Batch of 4 targets.
Target 1
Amino acid sequence: MSEKPYKISGWYDVYKSIRKPMPRPGYVEEDKRPSAPPIEEEDASIEDLKIEANIVCEGKGHELGEWADAKRGRQNVSTSTCKKCNKSITVIENPLGNETDMMGEALTQNCL
Ligand SMILES: [Zn+2]
């Protein structure tokens, strides 16, 4: 039996080598990497949202006035307007799937 000189020419030779074997062509190996735990995002309270909204709006040059709290069903909502440009912002506790917890012109547009 003659030993051929070792030559990496295809997947089979690689499989016989000391290197980690590659999956066969056309075969998808199961991903054995550990998966990260699901991200659990806590719902922010209405007061936290107001603080966050103030920071964001301040960055856009707005100066928010008093917050007006209201109830919308079981949700707490609060609205404020800018003292300078009158653009409004609304924060919603536990927003529905198609909503964000912050909405309004003051959030997306810069102050005058
Ligand atoms: Zn403004």
Note: Residues 62, 82, 84-85, 87, 111 surround zinc ion (CB under 6 Å).
Target 2
Amino acid sequence: MPLSRPITIVTHPHCLAHDTGGGEHPETPGRLTALLARLQASPLRDRLTMVEPRKAERRWLTTFHDEHYLFRLEECALSGKTHLDHPDNQLCFDSYEAALLSAGAGLTGIDLLEGEENLVFCAVRPPGHHAESNLALGFCFLNNCVLAARYWQQQYGRRKILVIDFDAHHGNGIQSAFEEDPEVFYLSLHEHPTFSFPGSGYAEETGTGPGRGATLNIPLPPGADDQMVLNAWSKRVEPALAAFAPERIIVAAGFDAHRDDDMSGLAYSTEIYGKFGEYLAGWADQFCQGKLLSILEGGYHLESLADSAATYLTALSNHNNITKSRHPGESRGPEELPGAKDTGSESQQGLAYLRPTPE
Ligand SMILES: [Zn+2]
């Protein structure tokens, strides 16, 4: 039995106390329950260490969020209001603390990664990638990935950070944070904004000012499947990443592009998340001494979320074995990606229907 690499899961029971108002809302505590139960029932179980996060301190929250917004969020939760900024963003009394713990998970994870650990997955909610500096959006209150990137830079002096986002939706908040910043590369694969929430993430959005060229949006048409995303991965993602050569990688790990998840029109299989895991672990080995931080974003079909996350983490854990079974020390070229072949113009495929409501 080959040895596989251990994974640290950063999670906290209080993330379950973030109540979004009952069964009508897709961002439920059951998402985490299903994901964690699936991990505990999988062969991965023996390789997992569970760690509780600290709450993100104010000084780290304000590396992105406005003070006024933070007071508004806290007041909204503690005063018994049911949503912030839009009815999508349901919250309860416990939501502020849950949001602090979710944001803190990335920070705790980075502390571990700067020590002995190599692979950290933050199984937390509420998610974060839609949250703006002064606005709650798309079930997100604090931008967990943005705060993690700032922490890595300012606490540990890591300058070049890649944030790669394979959630079905564009991470508008991550892009906003870093669009002028040449040291944080934001790379997102998502359903085309013409058809999908939040309506940003066009290919033309490539960063501004000194950050021009450090944002890469790869919109995929509704119906895009494994073949199409692998094609984009080999042709667009791999060259961009190789050119940027990050010191550290943060993954905005959303699983709502799965074909069973009706939150997007994308149609990935469960297995594609294993490919993502394999490739990301390879990049981490090549550029980042194996260090990789993943933070849960979306994923609303409970069974697919659980299976996809388990598949992703299994691939991360097994990556050493995969590498050894190839040629030790040899980096992978884009042409080697299985299933990677030209499927024609992405923009002209699968645009047969409009999705009426994004979230
Ligand atoms: Zn999403």
Note: The first helix runs from residue 29 to 40.
Target 3
Amino acid sequence: MTGSPPRECQLRPARPEDEVVILEWRNAPWGVALSGTGRAVSPEEHGRWFSQTLAGVARRLFVIEEQGRPVGMIRYDVVGKAAVEITILVLPERVGAGLGTAAFRHSLALMAGWRPLRTILARVLRSNSRSLAFFRHLGFAIVEDDGTSSLVRLELAVGGGDDLPPEGIQI
Ligand SMILES: CC(C)(COP(=O)(O)OP(=O)(O)OC[C@H]1O[C@@H](n2cnc3c(N)ncnc32)[C@H](O)[C@@H]1OP(=O)(O)O)[C@@H](O)C(=O)NCCC(=O)NCCS
């Protein structure tokens, strides 16, 4: 671990008031670099996307908080029957402290009961060695590689996390 240990962390579903900070992250230079499109989004475009996201039909968004301050997010997009694609982000100044690992593990509990879930995929740029190491560490395996990015996959055991509370948890 490189960062100081996490303190008083929580993972909770995104709320309407998170719209501003999520847009800020999306349009920060590192957010743009991570995005599939490589461009910033307008507040209007983001507003529409965020409302759909909160509706929670095809996507779920969770915020990682440390001492009440948002420091990251986890997003799951439905990509198939019982399959979702994960996007995870920890603020640059807090990477390497274990937050991503803890948040991912707890996000599975928050996902339980939403819809059947067996497969989690992630698309990672090959140049993003930290992220590849992160997913490998969590048990994801590389299933495709087109030379630029890798598709990693985790198959879940059935029934994991069903006994945990749905509305937000200490991590
Ligand atoms: C990928 C990311 C979410 C990992 O979160 P994190 O909180 O930094 O990860 P953790 O501290 O829990 O680290 C878990 C493992 O990831 C890898 N890792 C984390 N920080 C690393 C670093 N600085 N260098 C190399 N590997 C690193 C290691 O394997 C680490 O295991 P270790 O602690 O036993 O060494 C975070 O680095 C991030 O937000 N990156 C930018 C966004 C991104 O690339 N997202 C993934 C694409 S969806």
Note: Residues 1-2, 34, 87-90, 95-101, 122, 124, 128, 130-131, 133-134, 137 surround coenzyme A (CB under 6 Å).
Target 4
Amino acid sequence: MLARARAKLADAGARLQLHQGDISQVTFDGSFDAVISAIAVHHVPPPDKPGLFQRLYDVLRPSGVLVLGDAFQAATPALSERYRDLSKAWLEREGIVETPVYTAYRSRNSQPSGGSSTHLQAYLQWMEEAGFHNVDCVWKYLSRAVVYGERPQSQ
Ligand SMILES: C[S@@+](CC[C@H](N)C(=O)[O-])C[C@H]1O[C@@H](n2cnc3c(N)ncnc32)[C@H](O)[C@@H]1O
């Protein structure tokens, strides 16, 4: 994946640095205007997630933003079932056929990432506890959502 990113972002030259590490443990050097992540944080074990949000807050500059898209547990078992049916219907409508490997994975794991995903509400709470302001869910479709928060200008 890093090799593909390097090839795709070749035009960025020296402005691009790629690092490999476990986000549940890694410490980030420097300070940043934005932290953006797509469908990765749900892999972090739930007990490590609050600490991750704190480390992300700590590396943001004042007014820096966190934008995080991820897969979440549905709020209730009934909604989880409904989301699964709606996703299946959408795949069928789009003519997307699941590979046998993915079907086997899905039948083993009723939740995204084999159970380490959490409720969307937990992310919003952990972000607020870490110090983020203007925390919100800015997009949601079934069990996918994007959450957003800002480090205040004066802290
Ligand atoms: C569903 S893929 C998403 C990849 C990419 N962000 C995208 O949107 O195409 C999940 C990614 O999370 C990475 N990942 C899972 N656990 C991780 C961890 N603890 N630390 C860093 N990356 C992790 C996996 O290696 C994988 O590349």
Note: Residues 1, 22-24, 38-40, 43-44 surround S-adenosylmethionine (CB under 6 Å).
